[in-house]
């Protein structure tokens, strides 16, 4: 297995840093190839601007079309091209980050904004009366798996169905479905460590064992069964879920998960 770890935390000695290091050692010891994109260590540029597109930048700037033209011409910046190559190389992509303000750190969102360009991660495939592009189960990154490894400051009860922060599955849905599944990645259930700020050494030892187990079973773990866009569940072009397909009691985000 070839695994890319995209890591976003400014402190190498943090819990996230330890989980990243443990992932590298565990996977390599099991015979897998591992590459790491340590965004803070790379001093990753987080903002999209005209410099990303060189001679293909227009005035006024059109991020979508400019990024697509630069991608097609092979003239995206070297840092972006390197990350796209890593994604195409990988069988599995692990994203290691703390949940900050209910989402990923800005540097990681900036990685997505710059690397998931038009014609690479979106804007691909046929658009017709029966197909609305290759996305949500199809696309450039189809055939690969993705896993979020996330830490939170609050305890697990705060992220339960009636918890004040909202269910963790709902908080992660925009990342799982809208960022990862959109370009074709099969999304594995997340690995979440709660109460990271108050974790004891004993608790970390248990968490490390659980993380090792998840890592060693990546290949056999079933992905979240999101509905595929072009395979009959949605009306096209409205992309509304067809009536009667939802399990009893399912609403909101859960409509887009089978079963």
Automatic annotation (TrEMBL):
<feature type="domain" description="Flavodoxin-like fold">
    <location>
        <begin position="1"/>
        <end position="215"/>
    </location>
</feature>
<dbReference type="InterPro" id="IPR029039">
    <property type="entry name" value="Flavoprotein-like_sf"/>
</dbReference>
<dbReference type="InterPro" id="IPR051545">
    <property type="entry name" value="NAD(P)H_dehydrogenase_qn"/>
</dbReference>
<dbReference type="Pfam" id="PF02525">
    <property type="entry name" value="Flavodoxin_2"/>
</dbReference>
<comment type="similarity">
    <text>Belongs to the NAD(P)H dehydrogenase (quinone) family.</text>
</comment>
<dbReference type="GO" id="GO:0005829">
    <property type="term" value="C:cytosol"/>
</dbReference>
<keyword id="KW-0560">Oxidoreductase</keyword>
<protein>
    <submittedName>
        <fullName>NAD(P)H dehydrogenase (Quinone)</fullName>
        <ecNumber>1.6.5.2</ecNumber>
    </submittedName>
</protein>
<dbReference type="GO" id="GO:0003955">
    <property type="term" value="F:NAD(P)H dehydrogenase (quinone) activity"/>
</dbReference>
<dbReference type="InterPro" id="IPR003680">
    <property type="entry name" value="Flavodoxin_fold"/>
</dbReference>
């Amino acid at each position: 297995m070839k695994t890319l770890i995209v890591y976003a935390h400014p402190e190498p000695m943090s819990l996230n840093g330890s989980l990243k290091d443990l992932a590298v050692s565990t996977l390599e010891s099991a015979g897998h190839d591992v590459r790491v994109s340590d965004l803070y260590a790379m001093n990753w540029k987080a903002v999209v601007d005209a410099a990303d597109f060189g001679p293909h930048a227009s005035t006024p700037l059109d991020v979508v079309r400019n990024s697509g033209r630069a991608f097609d011409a092979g003239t995206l910046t070297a840092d972006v091209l390197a990350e796209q190559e890593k994604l195409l190389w990988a069988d599995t992509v692990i994203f290691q980050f703390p949940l900050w303000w209910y989402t990923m750190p800005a540097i990681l969102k900036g990685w997505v904004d710059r690397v998931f360009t038009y014609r690479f991660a979106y804007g691909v495939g046929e658009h017709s009366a029966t197909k609305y592009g290759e996305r949500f189960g199809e696309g450039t990154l189809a055939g690969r798996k993705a896993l979020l490894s996330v830490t939170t400051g609050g305890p697990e009860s705060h992220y339960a169905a009636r918890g004040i922060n909202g269910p963790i599955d709902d908080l992660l849905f925009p990342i799982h479905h809208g960022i990862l599944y959109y370009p074709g990645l099969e999304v594995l259930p997340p690995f979440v460590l709660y109460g990271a700020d108050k974790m004891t050494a004993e608790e970390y030892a248990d968490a490390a064992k659980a993380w090792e187990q998840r890592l060693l079973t990546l290949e056999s773990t079933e992905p979240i069964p999101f509905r595929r866009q072009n395979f009959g569940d949605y009306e096209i072009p409205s992309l509304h879920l067809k009536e009667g397909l939802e399990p009893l009691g399912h609403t909101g985000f859960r409509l887009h998960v089978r079963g």
